[in-house]
Write a structure and sequence with these properties.
The structure holds two protein chains of two kinds. By secondary structure, chain A is α/β, with parallel strands linked by helices. In chain A, 36% of the residues lie in helices and 15% in strands. Chain A is built from twelve helices and twelve strands. Chain A has an eight-stranded mixed sheet, with helices on both faces. A two-stranded antiparallel ribbon of chain A has the order 2-3. In chain A, strands 7-8 form a two-stranded antiparallel sheet. By secondary structure, chain B is an alpha/beta fold. Chain B contains 13 helices and 16 strands. In chain B, the strands form three sheets. A seven-stranded mixed sheet of chain B has the order 3-2-4-5-7-6-13, sandwiched between helices. A six-stranded mixed sheet of chain B has the order 10-12-11-14-15-16, sandwiched between helices. Classes of the chains: A alpha/beta, B alpha/beta.
Chain lengths: 334, 391
């Protein structure tokens, strides 16, 4: 049976659906499979991202989640925020667990031992659970080609344990284990490029997303669900607690991450890059950095260095998207 | 009627898993476990076993994939050894605490450093407290039978716990032994399909693996303890039923020529067969010695052990693992602790030997028994003695 994407615009009249490639505004399901009443911090964009992801995933999923913020805020015996089957086991093994239920259901389905069909196995983890401790298990599961979706909710540090740096923490950010000091600017390494690592596994679908762009995010999740094979989505999730920014600015800071080119929104389908929001001119990175306490110690020199890096990386990405377009005239609508 | 066929014990384990009709096998290669998973991979590749074979990238992921597979209700098997078991360590607790009925054969191997691929029980002892049911097998037939029993025990609704079947690396895993493989029909009757009561199912969503605040953690752990202790009754039932069906009977503790013996030796695993030969020899020479073999390691068979040693005056325990800086081998410690309250004047002497694949011969066992008797009479300056070490 062909897998069907969960179409978030399915309630629109057919005429409108035929004529319009972009639906904005458009109806989104009111169903919340990630229930209200969880214990996320005020202004947590990661909780918002999980909520939107769940809207797009629909009901026919099983989720494995790593230890981390979202696990802690959504589960505490005897409560749960989950209206879909959900399992948490450990920190670093989420992709392996998800691949396990994909394999289990596959075998049982073949042997007529289950009536479940087209259940999407989903793994969810933070940046630490993905880019650091869970990278091996993720790489293994991507390489083995399981039909599953892995989502990294990236808030750029170990927020659950108290804002310690991870390999996804950006250059210059002050965290509790990469503190800015008299002789240090804070994090001394550039953010690990997780989407590129996922792409290197030659999987059919990789995307970046941000809950500040909710429709784009949900479209990508729906696309990933419809993908036959491994899919990876990397979601930037603004964390007011760890980024030391006003809680009411979460959505705005997420938009600025995209508008400055710091976190571009793109997809890589079967190796073909596509920039989803291609800005003619990027905003200066200071607009993004200046709103966050974790960057407030940065000198103009360091900010310039960041600006140069962002400009260069964005240019590289544009180049990949442009070269992906060359032979793609016929592929565009497929 | 099936007849005995000579086959490598590792291959026989693969055949047992085929007979059990496992759904998922997730494994990572490690000596001396490899022949088990190689054979399973072949069975799947040849279409003789309809299962998903997951060649994962580590033992940590092997056991993690098993968690996912068991949580959706699939019959799940893996095998490992030594360092692999250690890499799985934290995942083992999840399997038992979340009541996931996974079956694993552990091909016992020494722990590094120095690197040793050869057998002892260091790996098993390091996972003693992980909450798994643990059975030590003595020979190939026993491994095959207990793999089948393990699925039945693990998946029993009253149990729902993972089971390890231990066998000695090389000394047992790589031996060619006469094995009687039961027929498929008999196995199907003995081992019904896995009916995991609350799997992860989109039609009936459940949340598994919430975190437990202090107000609830103690209760969850106590429930687990009660569950594992009560599993013993089911283990006995399954072994009885297996015996009635297949004619091979298993008990938590097995006595060999130990009725009314003054001196008893206690061993675990395949070394017991050599120990039996030593007992035979010493008995023929007029010595009053017998052998106890501990088969069920967890849940620990307190009553059976007390019963087995009720008339003995000296109990010599051989451990194949070392608890550094501690009271001796872990098995001997547990035996001492199990018998301390019994009020019996039983002298217990501990030996550690057979480490890292070093064999203990019949003569070696005689030496251990004789030295044990000597220590029981004149004492020893040490908590335990290490057998055959060159100092």
């Amino acid at each position: 049976m062909a897998k069907k994407a969960i179409d978030v615009g399915r309630d629109l009249p057919p005429k409108i659906r035929q004529r319009h490639a972009v639906y904005a505004p458009r109806p989104v399901t009111t169903k919340e499979n990630f229930a209200q009443g969880n214990r996320a911090c005020v202004g947590c964009a990661e909780a918002l991202a999980v909520r939107l992801v769940c809207k797009a995933l629909g009901d026919n999923v099983i989720i494995a989640m790593a230890t981390g913020c979202m696990e802690i805020v959504s589960s505490q015996l005897p409560y749960t925020s989950w209206r879909v089957p959900w399992i948490h086991t450990l920190f670093e093994n989420t992709a392996a667990v998800a691949s396990g239920f994909e394999a289990g259901l596959k075998a049982m389905s073949r042997k007529g031992r289950t009536r479940l069909e087209n259940v999407k196995a989903v793994g969810m983890a933070g940046d630490g659970g993905t880019a650091d401790i869970g990278l091996q298990a993720l790489s293994g599961a991507l390489e083995r080609g399981h039909n599953f979706l892995y989502i990294c909710f990236d808030n750029e540090a170990y927020m659950n344990t108290g804002i310690q740096r991870s390999s996804a923490t950006p250059y210059g950010a002050s965290t509790t284990t990469s503190p800015a000091g008299k002789v240090s600017i804070g994090q001394l390494t550039w953010k690990k490029n997780m989407p590129a690592i996922a792409v290197a596994h030659d999987i059919p679908y990789v995307a970046t997303a941000c809950p500040s762009y909710p429709l784009d995010l949900m479209d990508k999740v729906a696309k990933a669900v419809a993908t036959d094979g491994p899919a990876y989505i990397h979601i930037l999730s603004v964390c007011p607690t760890g980024w030391r920014c006003p809680t009411e600015l979460s959505v705005r800071i997420g938009r600025l991450a995209v508008e400055t080119g710091i976190f571009p929104l793109y997809e890589v389908e079967n190796g073909q890059y596509k920039l989803n929001i291609d800005l003619p001119k990027l905003k200066p990175v200071t607009e993004y950095l200046s709103l966050q306490g974790r960057f407030r110690h940065l000198s103009d020199g360091v900010i310039n260095k960041i600006q140069q890096r962002v400009t260069a990386e964005y240019a590289k990405l544009k180049e990949k998207a442009a070269s992906s377009l060359v032979p793609a005239g016929s592929q565009k609508d497929s | 009627m099936p007849s005995k066929i000579g086959m490598e014990v590792s291959v026989a384990i693969g055949e047992a898993v085929r007979l059990a009709n496992a759904d998922v096998i997730a494994a990572y290669p490690i000596t001396p476990q490899t022949h088990i998973v190689e054979h399973l991979a072949e069975l799947v590749a040849d279409g003789k076993l309809d299962a998903e074979f997951m060649p994962v990238e580590s033992e940590h992921s092997a056991m993690s994939a098993c968690l996912g597979s068991a949580a959706v209700g699939a019959r799940t098997f893996t095998a490992t050894a030594g360092q692999g078991l250690e890499l799985m360590h934290e995942v083992l607790y999840i399997a038992s605490s979340m009541r996931l009925p996974i079956v694993m054969t552990v091909v016992n191997r020494a722990l590094s450093a120095p690197l040793s691929v050869w057998g002892d029980h260091s790996d098993a002892m390091a996972v003693r407290d992980t909450g798994w049911i643990q059975i030590f097998a003595e020979n190939g037939q026993e491994v095959v039978d207990n793999v089948l029993c393990a699925f039945r025990i693990a998946e029993d609704r009253r149990v729902l716990l993972p089971v390890m079947v231990h066998l000695d690396g090389f000394h047992l895993s790589h031996m060619i032994e006469p094995i009687l493989l039961p027929e498929q029909g008999e196995v199907d009757q003995f081992l019904p399909p896995n009916q995991y009561p609350l799997p992860l199912d989109p039609n009936k969503p459940v949340t598994m693996g919430d975190f437990g605040p202090p107000a609830i953690y103690t209760e969850t752990k106590w429930a687990q303890e009660v569950n594992l202790r009560q599993a013993k009754e089911v283990i006995l039932q399954v072994w009885n039923e297996f015996g009635d069906t297949f004619g091979r009977h298993y008990t938590p503790v097995e006595c060999y020529r130990c009725e009314d013996c003054r001196v008893l030796l206690l061993t675990m695993g395949s070394f017991s067969e050599t120990a039996m030969s030593a007992i035979d020899k010493m008995r023929s020479e007029g010595n009053d010695v017998g052998l106890i073999r501990l088969r069920l390691w967890r849940p620990f068979p307190f009553d059976e052990i007390r019963q087995a040693v009720r008339n003995a005056e000296v109990l010599i325990v051989l451990d194949r693992a070392l608890s550094f800086g501690g009271p001796g081998g872990p098995v001997c410690s547990e035996i001492k602790s199990a018998l301390y309250q019994s009020g019996r004047k039983l002298k217990i002497v501990g030996f550690v030997g057979g480490l890292g694949g070093r064999d203990i011969s019949i003569a070696g066992f005689e030496e251990i028994i004789n030295r044990g008797i000597e220590i029981s009479e004149v004492g020893s300056p040490h908590e335990f003695e290490i057998f055959g070490v060159r100092e």
